[in-house]
Specification:
- Belongs to the small heat shock protein (HSP20) family.
- Keywords: Metal-binding, Stress response, Zinc.
- It holds the Pfam family HSP20.
- Zn(2+) binds at residues 101, 103, 108.
- Residues 52-161 form the SHSP domain.
- There is one protein chain.
- The protein has a six-stranded mixed beta sheet with strand order 1-2-3-8-7-10, with no helix packed on it. Strands 6-5-4-9 form a four-stranded antiparallel beta sheet, with no helix packed on it.
- Helices cover 20% and strands 36% of the residues.
- It starts with a helix and ends with a helix.
- The protein has six helices and ten strands; from the N terminus they run ααβαααβββββββββα.
- Mean pLDDT is 74; it is low at 9-14 and 43-54.
- By secondary structure, it is α+β, with helices and mostly antiparallel strands.
- The chain has helices at 4-7, 10-13, 29-37, 40-44, 51-54, 167-175; strands at residues 17-18, 62-66, 70-76, 85-90, 94-106, 109-120, 131-134, 139-145, 155-158, 160-162.
- It has a domain at 60-175: Immunoglobulin-like (Sandwich), CATH 2.60.40.790.
């Protein structure tokens, strides 16, 4: 059986979930011992890197969704303070999220982090009404409403609004 049809799947070409948001985080002892105590995990991931699937309850991850009303991206930025994150939109329907903090001490030494993520919004999204909200559990939500037509702008900085609630709790309330 060939694996080639699996790579032709659109999920692999443009995934809606970005795994491995734990850059700069330290592996815990249980992360390393999981494959010893449960060898079936190695079948699922022959490289032995299983942290993303085991830690999913703690990791909000990054998701991108687009429905009839809006474009929405959730980005896990719990390693950054709100003042270390910027969200900008440009006239080419692009939203750019940047997080950066200088070298700071942690329990294992010193660490500095920097990321830049760009999302190209669909052409029928109103780039002037892009909003960003930061939940108490460190998930940044970018929302752009869908409209019939929009005007291009040069560049605009988007303020980050703290919600004070974890995003997992908000999602559970909406489902009920």
């Amino acid at each position: 059986m060939s694996l080639l049809p699996l790579f032709d799947d659109s999920y692999f070409l443009r995934p809606s979930r970005i795994l491995s948001q734990q850059f700069g985080s330290v592996l815990e002892p249980e992360d390393l011992l999981q494959s010893v105590f449960n060898p079936r995990l190695l079948v699922r991931c022959p490289a032995g890197y299983i942290r993303n699937w085991i830690d999913e309850a703690r990791d909000a991850g990054s998701t991108v969704s687009f429905d009839k009303d809006k474009f929405q991206a959730n980005i896990d930025v719990q390693q950054f303070k709100p003042e270390e994150i910027t969200v900008k939109v440009t006239g080419d329907n692009t939203v750019t999220i940047e997080g950066k903090h200088e070298e700071t001490p942690d329990e294992h030494g010193y660490i500095s982090r920097h990321f830049v993520r760009r999302y190209v919004l669909p052409p029928n999204c109103d780039i002037k009404q892009v909003q960003s909200n930061l939940s108490s559990d460190g998930v940044l939500t970018i929302t752009a409403p869908r409209v019939s037509e929009g005007k291009a702008i040069e560049q605009k900085e988007i303020p980050i609004i703290r919600t004070g609630e974890p995003v997992k709790k908000l999602q559970q309330k909406k489902e009920e």
